[in-house]
Write a structure and sequence with these properties.
Blueprint lengths: L8 H9 L36 E8 L2 H12 L2 E5 L5 E7 L2 E8 L3 H4 L3 E7 L3 H10 L3 E9 L3 E7 L5 E7 L16 E8 L2 H12 L2 E4 L9 E5 L2 E8 L11 E7 L3 H10 L3 E8 L5 E6 L5 E6 L3 H4 L4
Parallel strand pairs: 1-4, 5-8, 9-12, 13-16
Antiparallel strand pairs: 1-5, 2-3, 3-4, 6-7, 7-8, 9-13, 10-11, 11-12, 14-15, 15-16
């Protein structure tokens, strides 16, 4: 199972460097986990597990209809409702392919703030959960098997960053070198008060190769790689947040025009948390929140390795 496009290593490493300073201005809502069990997405016929790959993203929201209206209008997503044992669940579709899952939890007081939760592939969920506890993490939802999807567990890292470990029942889709299109996830970043410690935690848990991010202050930013592909960056939390603020994962969606997307998000009832601004290689990013406060990033990223210089 994989809803995230993954591009050639050189391009991904270039992209990783784009977020070294830009994310230092992010102010996002505090994140908590939600108990979610949902079906699998399209997957390859032959099982292949790619540990460390971020293969899924799921929104927990108090109002599914409002979320569908917002993300559909903003990103061009269409939706396929799926029957689940409890609650309401829908898949977001781009070009006939699932790109995200959205689950409704009307009583968010009991389930935490609205958030996007990344799912990271792992060979053995029970082993990962046990190891996470040893290395200072916390298990919010114990390993469980979801029919048609696989084994999963929701975990908090030592600084409070939330993610789910997943062993897909049908395997992870191989990495894709085609450029991302409007509405597809393109990048992931962890914001944390202790980047060095966080890098060690995720390295031990998922077997990442960890490299210091070039041009970053020593010990302040890192690249996480698996299968020789850069999967995410680790960056410091914004200095304006209060002491003790929780770490949080931020996922970025490719869009055709970041400025127009940010303006439309406000018109649809969302907020702009970080204004659109250029970064390295003419890439433009912004951080938005949907009408219920779930934070996510949008990005214009141009792959300059295949067709020449970026636009």
């Amino acid at each position: 199972m994989s809803l995230f496009r993954t591009h050639a290593r050189k391009s991904r490493r270039s992209l990783a460097l784009l977020l070294g300073t830009a994310l230092s201005f992010v102010v996002a809502p505090q994140l908590h986990a939600a108990d979610v069990s949902t079906p699998a997405t399209n997957a390859p016929a032959k099982e292949q597990i790619l540990p460390g790959k971020i293969v899924y993203a799921q929104l927990t929201t108090p109002d599914l209809d409002k979320a569908k209206t917002f993300y559909g209008s903003l990103l061009g997503w269409t939706f396929k409702d799926v029957t689940v044992s409890k609650g309401q669940y829908t898949q977001a579709i781009v070009n006939g392919r699932p790109v995200a899952g959205l689950v409704e939890r009307p009583n968010m007081v009991a389930h935490g703030d609205p958030l996007w939760l990344p799912f990271i592939s792992v060979q053995d969920v029970k082993a990962a959960a046990s190891a996470a506890k040893v290395w200072g993490g916390h298990i919010l939802f114990k390993p469980q098997n979801v029919i048609g999807r696989g084994d999963e567990s929701v975990i908090s890292d030592p600084q409070g960053g939330l993610f789910a470990a997943l062993r897909s029942a049908t395997g992870d889709i191989p990495d894709d070198t085609t450029p991302p299109q409007q509405g597809e996830w393109v990048w992931n970043a962890l914001l944390t008060s202790k980047p060095y410690e966080a890098a060690g935690f995720y390295q031990k848990l998922f077997g990442y190769q960890v490299e210091a991010a070039p041009d970053a202050k020593r010990g302040s930013a890192y690249l996480l790689e698996s299968q020789s592909i850069t999967r995410a960056t680790i960056n410091p939390l914004p200095p304006r947040l209060p002491d003790g603020a929780h770490a949080r994962w931020m996922n970025f969606v490719q869009v055709d025009n970041v400025g127009a997307t940010a303006q439309k998000a406000v018109e649809l009832g969302g907020k702009v948390l970080v204004q659109p601004h250029p970064d390295r290689q003419d890439t433009i990013i912004a951080v938005l929140a949907d009408p219920t406060g779930a934070a996510f990033g949008v990005m214009e990223w141009h792959d300059s390795t295949g067709t020449g210089d970026a636009k």
